[in-house]
Design a protein that fits this description.
Blueprint: E1 4-8, E2 20-27, H1 30-38, E3 45-48, E4 54-55, E5 60-67, E6 72-77, E7 81-87, H2 92-101, E8 126-127, E9 130-131, E10 136-143, E11 149-153, H3 154-157, E12 174-184, H4 195-203, H5 211-225, E13 233-234, E14 243-245, H6 246-255, E15 262-265, E16 268-270, H7 273-279, E17 286-287, E18 290-292, E19 300-302, H8 308-326, E20 335-336
Parallel strand pairs: 2-5, 3-5, 4-20
Antiparallel strand pairs: 1-2, 6-7, 7-12, 8-9, 10-11, 10-12, 13-19, 14-16, 15-16, 17-18, 18-19
The protein binds uridine-diphosphate-2(N-acetylglucosaminyl) butyric acid.
């Protein structure tokens, strides 16, 4: 294990922001990880997974710790299902493809989400009607104080919409080192109710889709709407979709009859932030080398060597404008550092 100095974090964040870490190391074994965590001289650490959910607004003065733990294994299986364990540093999409090659169902709707396995429970990643919590079995995490490993069940993770205990009570207290999923081996429960998936399958003439067909449909939809971080720096949805009171929504819909919404409970409604941002006039707006994506207003993009602080300022302007026009507060989904 080697500690390097003054390393650019550009390859380690999907926004492609060229911030510098004063110290940097990458760990590919649990032993190395423990050794690094024992070093007193680095009290401040920035944990780097796939770097797909962060905006670096300045250089980092502490130690950037890249989690590069690899490995996928079947822990147990019976004729109906399998428990599969993936180490935190596995690329998420490659893991999904591995599951599909083994005909293990449950993750196909989550195809092509950037990032690594270890960060998926932190914000309970979700797309096209499925969230990680639906197949999550447990995860292992190292306690940053005691340096002991602890196991978290689904209940203990306290999953919510883009939320978990690792963003609440246990924020910055653990590093997730591996995640177990319970996946189906037959009679897969298909989730094709999300409008665009059904359309995509229909357009391709697929009547009885397999999990592999669903994955292909999701990949096609994502590729048509969301920028690939390899081509244009971005962090997926920059904001969460806000949940507002039904009474507020009823007032708004009078002025904005085309406002889409999803019912959350008897008195709560979720409104797509992308729609609010588009209506606020930001969709496709470019400010020099950064801006708002042309096809999905929820995604802020770095077209070149943008500074994280500029993108952050843009996000604040968007929040302010949405608040002024709709009286709705939209919250960043990405971590601002
Ligand atoms: N919309 C607009 N303008 C836009 C974007 C969206 O009007 O620029 C409208 C759409 O027409 C649609 C509604 O907003 O009526 C919802 O749009 P979409 O289905 O594209 O999904 P989203 O709510 O914008 C969420 C997730 C995405 C996920 C998709 C698909 C959040 C914050 N985002 O986006 O997740 O892929 O649903 O399930 O919940 C991510 O987290 O990085 C991410 C991409």
């Amino acid at each position: 294990m080697q500690i390097l100095n003054n390393i650019s974090l550009k390859p380690y964040n999907t926004f492609g922001i060229d911030a510098v870490a004063k110290h940097f190391t990458s760990v590919s074994s649990i032993n190395d990880l423990k050794q690094v965590l024992e070093l007193d001289r680095f009290p401040n650490k920035l944990i780097l997974g796939g770097g797909s959910n962060m905006l670096l607004t300045k250089d980092y003065e502490g130690l950037a710790l890249h989690i590069n733990l690899k490995g996928i294994e079947i822990i147990s299986e019976d004729e109906n299902s399998a428990i599969v364990k993936a180490q935190a540093g596995e690329n998420w999409h490659e893991f999904v493809l591995w599951c599909l090659e083994h005909n293990f169902g449950g993750l196909e709707n989550l195809s092509l989400i950037p990032g690594n396995v270890g960060t998926t429970p932190i914000q309970n990643i979700g797309a096209y009607g499925v969230e990680i919590k639906d197949t999550f079995e447990s995860c292992e995490a190292i306690n940053l104080k005691s340096l002991e490993f602890e196991n978290f069940t689904k209940e203990e993770c306290n999953f919510g919409y883009r939320n978990s205990t690792f963003k609440q009570k246990n924020k910055d207290k653990y590093i997730v080192t591996s995640v177990c999923f319970k996946l189906s081996k037959k009679n897969h429960k298909l989730n094709i109710n999300y409008g665009t998936i059904a359309n995509e399958l229909q357009e391709n003439g697929i009547k009885n889709p397999t999990i592999q067909d669903i994955s292909k449909a999701v990949i096609a939809i994502r590729e048509s709407k969301l920028p690939n971080p390899k081509d244009i720096g971005n962090s997926g949805s920059f904001f969460k979709n806000p949940i507002i009171q039904k009474s507020e929504f009823d007032k708004l819909i009078e002025n904005f009859p085309d406002m889409p919404s999803y019912t959350i409970s008897d008195n709560e409604v979720k409104v797509p932030a992308g729609w609010l941002i588009e209506k606020s006039g930001f969709k496709g707006k470019q400010f020099g080398n950064y801006g708002v994506h042309k096809k999905q207003a929820l995604v802020l993009v770095n077209y070149g060597d943008a500074k994280g602080s500029d993108i952050f300022k843009l996000s604040k302007l968007i929040q302010k404008t949405v608040k002024r026009l709709f009286n709705i507060s939209i919250e960043a989904e990405v971590n601002i550092l």
